[in-house]
Amino acid sequence: MAELSKDRESHVLNLTRDDNQPIQMNAGDVVRVRQTAYIDGPNGKSRVDDAITGSNLYNDLATSVAAAVAKEVNSFISLTQPGGDPVWFDGAKATGPTFVSKAQQTPDWSGKINSALVIGKNVQFVRNTPKEVYDAINGQHGHAIPPRRDEFAVDVLKDLETDGTKIGVWDEGLYLKPGV
């Protein structure tokens, strides 16, 4: 079970990696948390993306990890993934909502994509409406972009690629068909 360390460094999370190795991680380094999905393989109960080691699977429940991070990072919030499960992230460090094309909004077996936001250098698709994404990010003093009607939408992702780094997609294999 994810918990905060009881020592002088209360911002340190104690987690157990999917290979049963205990790990300590700074709560402020956590970028995103979600429960594991079929694309992660058979091990672990949560996927934790952090600024230091990247993505790793842990035996701790995603809800427990997110709750422990939220005790230290007040702006750690959740929205709903297209498939219906929560995804937690630091709203103060997020940007959105971002433009989602009609092709990406098309529902398929994996869930409904209604909107997206950028966490780090990756897009997170969500079931939430653009207004809900805006309100969530704005409420945490992140980079909230007022939603626009489709005919006036600009592809915000291209605007965010100003440093030449391509924006990736979190969990692309879960929600997008190849070529979308």
Please describe the structure with a list of short key phrases separated by commas or semicolons.
5 helices; alpha+beta; five-stranded mixed β-sheet; single chain; globular
Topology:
Blueprint: E1 3-4, E2 12-16, E3 22-26, E4 30-35, E5 46-50, E6 54-58, H1 62-72, E7 76-80, E8 86-90, E9 94-98, H2 102-105, E10 115-119, E11 122-126, H3 130-139, E12 143-144, H4 156-160, E13 168-169, H5 172-175
Parallel strand pairs: 9-12, 11-13
Antiparallel strand pairs: 1-2, 2-3, 4-5, 4-8, 5-6, 7-8, 9-10, 10-11
Structure description:
The protein has 180 residues and is an alpha+beta fold. 19% of the residues lie in helices and 32% in strands. The protein has five helices and 13 strands. The strands form three sheets. It has a five-stranded antiparallel sheet, with helices on one face. It is globular.
